[in-house]
Amino acid sequence: MQRYLTRWLDIPDLRRIEVYEAHGGYGALRKALFEMTPEQIINEVKNSNLRGRGGAAFPTGVKWSFIPKDSKKPVYVCCNADESEPGTFANRYELENDPHAIIEGILIACRAVGSHTCFVYMRGEFFTQKQIFETALGEARARGYVGADVMGSGFGVEITVHRGAGAYICGEETGLLESLEGKRAYPRNRPPFPAIQGAFGCPTVVNNIETLSNVPHIIARGAEWYKTMGPASSPGNKLFCLSGHINKPGLYELPMGFALKDLIYEVGGGILDGRKLKAVIPGGSSFPVFTAEEAVKVNMDFDSVRAAGSLMGTAGVMVMHDGTCMVEVLRTVAHFYHHESCGQCTPCREGTGWIEKLLIELEAGRGRTEDLQTLLSVATNMEGNTICVLADSLSMPVKSFIPKFRAEFEEHVRLGCCPFKEDGATPHATGGGDGVAQTPAAAPNRLSAQSTDTDAEADN
Amino acid sequence: MPKLTIDDRQVEVPDGINLIEAARLCGVEIPHYCYHPALAVVGNCRMCLVEVEKAPKLQIACNTRATDGMVVRTRSERTQAAQRAVLEFLLVNHPIDCPVCDQAGECKLQDYYMDFDRQPSRFERGRKNHKGKALDIGGGLMLDQERCVLCARCTRFFDDVTHTSELAIFERGDHNVIDIYPGRKVDNSYALNTVDICPVGALTEKDFRFRMRVWYLHRTPSVCGGCERGCAIDIHHHRGRIYRFKPRHNPEVNGYWMCDAGRRSFPALQSESRLTAPLKPAGERMAPIGWDAALAEAAAKIAELSHAHGPSAIGAVAGAHSTNEEAFALKRLMAAIGSGRIAALAWSPADAPRDDNLLIRANRNPNARGLAAIGIGADGIGPLGEAAAAGEIKMLIAMRADLVRALGEPEFVRRFGPLDYLLVLDTDANETGQMANLVLPIAAYPELDGSFTNFKGQVQRLCKAFDPPGEARSAIEILDALAARLAGAAPRPGEAPLAAGAVFAEMATAEPAFAGLTLDGLGEHGAPSRTPTA
Ligand SMILES: Cc1cc2nc3c(=O)[nH]c(=O)nc-3n(C[C@H](O)[C@H](O)[C@H](O)COP(=O)(O)O)c2cc1C
Ligand code: SF4
Ligand code: SF4
Ligand code: SF4
Ligand code: FES
User: Fold this and answer.
1) C-beta of B261 in contact with ligand 4 (< 6 A)
2) Is residue A163 predicted with pLDDT exceeding 80?
3) What's the whole-number mean pLDDT along residues B349-376?
4) Which of A47, A304, A433, B273 is deepest in the core (most CB within 10 A)?
């Protein structure tokens, strides 16, 4: 397997421009500027079947082709660097280790759609990442890759970094645009779509960092090369964010279509403490959960995961072992969406809070059997009826957790407490393997943990 | 013009309108909170979800344009389920304090619950979120954040209509609240319109709160007399008292809005100073006399003085608060007397606001244009005043014209001191009345039928909400009675007083500006008068 997204593992100091250049960096940009027309760039990306890595998997070339060719208004490119999906940490590593690939991807995208301005909307917590990225931007500017006359081509591009202030909804593309314009990040009704009326009322492309960092490689080596990796309908390599009860959590570059089973047991080194796999959320917290039986059959590409009843989203793969309380996990997920709902649409604003409140009761053993029905129907009422899909992002977990782990939810009602926790109510960590508990020993909830710093928490 | 089907009804609708408006045109109500025809579409309440054939998801009617061939279902099972769901969601954190809420009776949460839901809530346990109640946010507004459905109508009004942006949404998710910014209160001339557009009891009017349950209120369409804009209003009244003015939609005049000063102008129409009987000086004071004696005296004075000094010794001033019919009736009376000395008084207090770019006009007279159209007032009261000062005028009839206030006492005395007789027709006791030989109490505009012509020439109808106080009568009735007496006709007891419609009809024949119009034909929005602005 060839690595191209995580070349930094093989090339020290890749973030420095001399190193990046020495390894072919900005060659794709040169090609895009001097050897290709914008149409050719768009066609190459279309042919590559590159699909957006930000969660919605929309074909990137097609998205670019929606930008009006004869726009009288300026066209903008926005790089979505707001990465905040739970269990997702690929963009962060890319910013830290390969910022020039992002810049090069941005420049090629700008050339393709005729944009002279790119806004990089960066998650507010990405403080170091922003410094690294801006250092790289300074280098690129000094070398004439960014500025009024990119590589002497006469084509100008400015790149501006805009820092967010800590809200998940700013990653939703129209919420992002509102926030960029200095307003509250309330997602917009569509139509109009950003390609027609995006930032400041002008045609705009919004792409995720990982999407953009695929672009230089596609331009440099061609769509045919790209399609040699992964399935034809969703090709390329993908950055998988592996977290949870796994021996080797972390970021892995693998071809699309990689078996989830191998991701967990080979790449990830198997389940923590030698326990049994219970469940996997394959794409960040917003999507349906897989049971262990389902998980081991799935291949990780957009269409296969969809065919198996979930979505690959951001490829934030969260692994849970058999000591995990699924009521607690769902309550945690609900807490997140309740906390992050912008509150604009009635069903999402009220539904997310209602669901969390019901789950708090259930987890604490104060729930009733009817509550499960209520949860499902509230989730259904939220689904598909709102401005953005954040409402669906809670609805989908609710509608998969309850039917797939119904017995566990019912047990909480029957026992009047949580069977996974000693005191039956509040979550706490006893550490695994002390071998005393008849009920499965409580395990720390690592769902929100990112990358490799989770082990330290395990024995709190 | 797209043709579409809404609930099995075929309709043809104007281009570019949304499904809420299209449905309205064929008598179908699509419930909605955030949509308001005068504000930008935000599509946040999700109350207007409807089924549109071929669209996989339900669509929000407010953001869906009616297009040719569309098939829309507003009462299908799916639509109804979505409506019930949204209402249930809205009630999750709603305090349901209807018994103490001023909005009860005109609340869209109550109305839609009855029309589209009627299900018990399943949200029984868990605490509701608590937010601020009875917050005085300035501008005469009281805010209850718990009752708010976060439709953002108020914020859009202050952002896009007044451009003052005093309100914003703070926090996130179900903690969202409407609020003012720290240290800054609502402060603009149109703030109370947000009370009208707030679909629930979140924004209420401080002055109206707890004064009257709204289901006791009757509504009578009228026109604000606060300035020459003449905003269309509904008078909300109960047992002869006005409780509030509400703007009435008129695209030709005021859109959906009115100014706060106009809205607050009604207490002045029912104050302690209202006249309830004809008054005549008796020593130091004014004493009531009967109508018969009063009219007999006034008619006798007109006859006597015009006989002695010629008809031109009789002058008249119509205040520009007079209705078209009153002004015309006065002009007709003067013509019968044979005097052309009739002038208009269009006076605005020194502290009147300036014209702004929404509604407010510096000219505080609701019918200055109407008087001009009838041929009264091109020169103001200047020439008439000078003639009076020169002793050429012996008797003055002042209708709705507080000359002392307008001119100041010294100037009034200089000009009108030489009068032998001052006849005042007015609603309220005032300084001019103090100087009068006879004061006749007349109806204020909520108490009469008639019309005003606004500064752009739109003739709008006033409807009588209730009878004038005490023995006060409509001015046209009085002027007609005087004309009859001068003509030697016997008083006509028992006969119905002259109707404004009849005066209007005569005016339409006599005055080109009103040609072809009828009072009843003015309709909700009024009609343009026929002459261009003077
Ligand atoms: C609630 C919500 C949050 C999102 N957050 C992010 C994010 O942090 N980063 C991102 O790239 N896309 C995010 N997305 C997806 C974006 O809306 C958009 O689809 C994406 O940026 C498009 O880029 P792509 O086509 O390159 O994937 C989010 C979507 C939703 C509904
Ligand atoms: S679905 Fe939720 S997060 Fe998205 S716009 Fe509506 S309220 Fe905001
Ligand atoms: S206060 Fe009223 S108008 Fe304003 S958002 Fe709340 S419900 Fe809507
Ligand atoms: S703008 Fe003039 S007419 Fe309109 S409400 Fe105000 S005072 Fe009355
Ligand atoms: S009226 Fe359409 S969403 Fe509120």
Assistant:
1) yes
2) yes
3) 96
4) A304
Which CATH architecture does the domain made up of B98-103+124-270 adopt? 2-Layer Sandwich (3.30)
Backbone angles phi, psi at A139, to 5 degrees: -60, -45
Give chain A's mean pLDDT: 92
- What does the pLDDT read at residue B491? 62
A172 touches chain B (CB under 8 A): no
Amino acid A431: pLDDT: 36
Looking only at the bridges linking them, the beta strands covering A76-81 and A117-122 are: parallel
What is the nearest CA distance from B271 to chain A, expressed in angstroms?
45
pLDDT (average), residues A275-304: 97
Q: For residues B428 and A267, give the distance between their C-alpha atoms in angstroms, rounded to a whole number.
A: 92
DSSP B158: I
Which protein residue's CA is at the shortest distance from atom 1 of ligand 4?
Answer: B360
Amino acid at the residue B478: I
Among the partner-chain residues B44, B88, B93, the one whose CB lies closest to the CB of A344 is B44
CATH 3.40.50.740, chain B: domain bounds: 287-491
Angstrom distances, CA of residue B141 to CA of B2, B100, B494: 42, 17, 49
Domain ranges in chain B with CATH number 3.30.70.20: 98-103+124-270
pLDDT greater at residue B154 or residue B114: B154
Of the candidates B89, B132, B63, the residue with the CA atom closest to the CA atom of residue A349: B89
Give chain A's domains with CATH numbers: 7-226 (3.40.50.11540), 237-321 (3.10.20.600), 326-417 (1.20.1440.230)
CATH 3.40.50.2000 is the classification of domain B3-90? no
Interval B374-392: pLDDT, tens:
999 767 888 999 999 999 9
Share of chain B above pLDDT 90, in %: 89
HSE-up of residue B134 (Cα within 13 Å, Cβ side): 6
- Among candidate residues B9, B1, B2, the one with its CA nearest the CA of residue B69: B2
Q: How far apart are the first and last CA of chain B?
A: 39
Pick the CATH number of B287-491 from 1.10.10.10, 2.30.30.240, 3.40.50.150, 3.40.50.740: 3.40.50.740
The pLDDT of residue A166: 84
- What would the two tokens of residue B235 be? 């008078």
Q: Are B139 and B191 in contact (CB under 8 A)?
A: yes
CB of B281 closer than 8 Å to CB of B443: no
